[in-house]
Amino acid sequence: MRNVFWFLLLFAIAATVALFAGNNQSTVTLFWPPYRIDLSLNLVLLALLAAFFLVYAALRGLLLLLALPGEARRWRARHQERVLQQGLFDALSHLTAGRYLRARKAAESVVAQTETLVRSEQAPTQSTRLVAMAHLLAAESAHALSDRSGRDEHARLALELTESARRDAQEVREGVQLRAARWACDDRDMQSALLRLDELPQGVARRTLALRLRLKVARLAGQTLLALETARLLGKHRAFSEGASRSIVRGLATELVRNVHDAGQLQKVWGQLDENERGIPEVALQAGERMLALQGDFTLVQQWLLPVWEQLVRPASTLPQELRLRLVLLLERGFSLTPGQPDAAWLARIEAAQMANPREPLLQYLAGVACMHLSLWGKAQQMLRQALTQLADEELRRRAWSALARLAEQREDSAAALDAWRKAAQG
After folding, report:
1. For residue 381, what pLDDT is reported?
2. Which of 48, 72, 134, 424 could form a disulfide with 107 if both were Cys (CB 3.0 to 4.6 A apart)?
3. What range defines the domain where residue 423 resides?
């Protein structure tokens, strides 16, 4: 449609010119004493139009001629920038290909060329960022070549260049800081790595990459609490799958509990765990075992073990057999170390669980142990003998026979006691 309108306009102009100039008898007379020049109006108009185009072309040509030096400077700047970028790409490609010496030379060549352009006031607009990236690549190559002094020097120069730079170069600075922390971790200098990570801006320190690095450094440095806090943040950021995050947190919380040296410190550490972590069976069992090993308060252990017990007695319980055994043995040990009778609430829980599931040998064994501490010798003997017919764990069978032997000695039945001790020894 646009082309149609252009053709119509062109035809209209042609028709107008034909009507005006085809039968135009007008003349233009120029007087130049003693001469007189008569010219056709059409010729004068054509001459004026030709003069206009001639002057316009001359002015355009003059402007282009005057702009040649600037165009040459811009062409040289673009060419120099392309050369620098090509050098940077060469350094990056060599680095990814494992040709570290060539990568370092290419990066240092970019730095030298840019410094030359800066001295001649011909540096590209992105020179700061370009040089900082070149220093970073050179430092990375030096790290791969185990040249720590060269690596640190290039990293220092990159940080100096980007200290007061714009936002785009500031991102390069953050990258240098993260790489410096990674290099310190590779050198097994965990204190320096943690110091580098602490120097990061708050927003950068909460990025997934920085948190992953902090988790690794904290674990290698033996700072389990810091590693646990970092693992929590990574879990919130969904840096790991749900199962992997739970496994990492479980391992760190268990290690944190295992490494305490007194009961007071254990209570403090337990208070630093969140509710979900306290409900993890492995963590609660480890805390209870550690508390008994430190001769702490078994009442606290019973409170800590309550979520694990609820998982055990649940109808569709998925608690592994290993953890079930640990829970039963821990409660038995706690009952034996506690002076006086066991806690009434726990006895009620054990009895209710055993009555709700009378075929569960672990609950029968635990109920028998509880009855022993209550001096209910007959009921304890009955529960333990019922449990022995189904117990598969050798250690638990041995302990059950030992308990029956002690009950026989209590009744002064030497033959039954000797037989029970013999079976306990045989396992």
Report:
1. 79
2. 134
3. 338-427
Rounded CA separation 20/43 (Å): 13
Q: Specify if 10 maps to a domain.
A: no
* CA neighbor of 255 nearest in space, from 226, 276, 234, 275: 226
Q: How far from the centroid of its chain's Cα atoms is residue 259's Cα?
A: 26
> Has residue 353 got a pLDDT over 60?
yes
Residues in the chain: 427
Interior angle at CA 402, CA 399 and CA 405, nearest 5: 155
CATH number of the CATH domain containing 383: 1.25.40.10
Question: What are the angstrom distances between the C-alpha of 37 and each of 40, 48, 316?
Answer: 10, 17, 120
Signed CA dihedral, 144, 148, 154, 155: sign only: positive
Last residue of a domain, one of 187, 213, 234: 187
Token pair in block for residue 95: 């680095």
Our count of domains for the chain comes to: 2
pLDDT tens digits for range 240-278? 888 888 888 889 999 999 888 888 898 998 988 888 888
Residue 419 domain-assigned? yes
DSSP annotation of 189: -
Confidence of residue 375 (pLDDT cuts 50, 70, 90): confident
- Rounded to whole angstroms, how far apart are CA atoms 182 and 197? 9
pLDDT exceeds 60 at position 296: yes
Greatest Cα-to-Cα distance within the chain, rounded to the nearest angstrom: 164
